[in-house]
Structures are given as structure tokens and as C-alpha cells.
Amino acid sequence: MAGNCCASSTCSSTQAIPPSYRRALWIALAVNLAMFGVELSAGWGADSASLMADAVDFFGDAANYAVSLLVLSLGLVARARTALLKGLTMGGYGLYVLSQAAWNGWIGAVPHAETMGVIGVIALVANLGVAVLLYTYRSGDANMRSVWLCSRNDAIGNVAVLLAAVGVFGTGTAWPDLIVAVGMAMLGLSAAWQVIGQARRELATVEPRVQFG
């Protein structure tokens, strides 16, 4: 049955994947792993929920890029199933960030605005570079779309972290940091909903052909 699927135009192979996309994923993977280490240490040291959220996001994106590289040689069904799993992971990330923000609000920790600002700028530059690399592939299948949404959300999140740093510096409270962390969580949940929806539509279109083709 798998042979029937891959014999049709609906089951893509590596020939349908541009080599430039694979290279872009490798670069994105390296950048995200490096920034995960930077933001993780900075977030803990600065008591910043938004930096910690961004660090977890970097790690999640690195994992997503690695998974995407593994499934490039597989058909559309496998890539759609992978995208479905990634969408669920993105949703789990959003829920984690919400709980982290709630905890920081409960203990009343005030983050270091200066550290937030410096790390936020570095992360923004890194994510803009990755977003530019992946922009061309934003309208591909569910797997490609999930990768693009991750890079887009990262850049938006970095701008939000910078705004939070300004807010923390100006008010001397943790509320700007917590508000941004919650906003990043909601953005992650929204992206997860989009990826899961597209992956389910692709599976609904292809899997009947796999079963009865």
C-alpha cells in the first residue's frame, strides 16, 4: 500500500525538496541550539520568564528542525504525521510558558532588565537570519509551514522580550515580563492550532488513498 501512495503525485519524495531547504534547516538547527544555551543561562540568571520562555522555544525549534531533516526523505503522509506531532509539541510549549509565568508572578521575582535587553537583541538578530532563510518555504506542506511558523514566532517573541525589558526597566516590576511571556504562550498555541489543522487536512486527503489505492 505504501508503494501505491509513493507512486502517485500526492506522495512527495526527496526529489520534491529543494537542496537549499535542507541547507537552511541545518543552519537553523545550529543557530537555535547555540541560542538555547545562551538564553537558558541568561534567563536563569536574570529571573526572566520571557527569556526562559524564549530559551525553551529555541530548544523546541532545534528539535523541530532536526525532525524535519529526518523526514525530508519520506512521503507526504509521514511528513504530515510529523507535523501533527510538532503541532502538539508547540501547544505543550505554550502551556509550559503559561505555567512558568504564573510561577514567577506568584513568587514575585523581578527580572534584570539590562540582561533581558542585551540577550533579546542577540536573539532577534539570530532569529531574523533564520526567518529570512526559511521565508521562501513558508507556503509548503504542513511540515514546511510548521518550520516557518516557528521562525516567525521566534522573531516576534524577541521583539516582545525587548519591549518587556523596557517595561521592567521603567516600572521596576515583573509585570511587563509576565505579560510578554503570556503573549508568547498564546502565540505558540495559535501556531500549534494552525499546524495541527493543516496536518489533519493533509492526512485526510492522502490516507484514504494509502488505504484503498
From TrEMBL:
<feature type="transmembrane region" description="Helical">
    <location>
        <begin position="155"/>
        <end position="172"/>
    </location>
</feature>
<keyword id="KW-0472">Membrane</keyword>
<feature type="transmembrane region" description="Helical">
    <location>
        <begin position="115"/>
        <end position="135"/>
    </location>
</feature>
<keyword id="KW-0813">Transport</keyword>
<feature type="transmembrane region" description="Helical">
    <location>
        <begin position="90"/>
        <end position="109"/>
    </location>
</feature>
<feature type="transmembrane region" description="Helical">
    <location>
        <begin position="58"/>
        <end position="78"/>
    </location>
</feature>
<feature type="domain" description="Cation efflux protein transmembrane">
    <location>
        <begin position="25"/>
        <end position="203"/>
    </location>
</feature>
<dbReference type="InterPro" id="IPR050681">
    <property type="entry name" value="CDF/SLC30A"/>
</dbReference>
<dbReference type="GO" id="GO:0005886">
    <property type="term" value="C:plasma membrane"/>
</dbReference>
<keyword id="KW-0406">Ion transport</keyword>
<protein>
    <recommendedName>
        <fullName>Cation efflux protein transmembrane domain-containing protein</fullName>
    </recommendedName>
</protein>
<keyword id="KW-0812">Transmembrane</keyword>
<dbReference type="InterPro" id="IPR027469">
    <property type="entry name" value="Cation_efflux_TMD_sf"/>
</dbReference>
<keyword id="KW-0862">Zinc</keyword>
<keyword id="KW-1133">Transmembrane helix</keyword>
<feature type="transmembrane region" description="Helical">
    <location>
        <begin position="178"/>
        <end position="196"/>
    </location>
</feature>
<dbReference type="InterPro" id="IPR058533">
    <property type="entry name" value="Cation_efflux_TM"/>
</dbReference>
<feature type="transmembrane region" description="Helical">
    <location>
        <begin position="24"/>
        <end position="46"/>
    </location>
</feature>
<keyword id="KW-0864">Zinc transport</keyword>
<dbReference type="Pfam" id="PF01545">
    <property type="entry name" value="Cation_efflux"/>
</dbReference>
<dbReference type="GO" id="GO:0005385">
    <property type="term" value="F:zinc ion transmembrane transporter activity"/>
</dbReference>
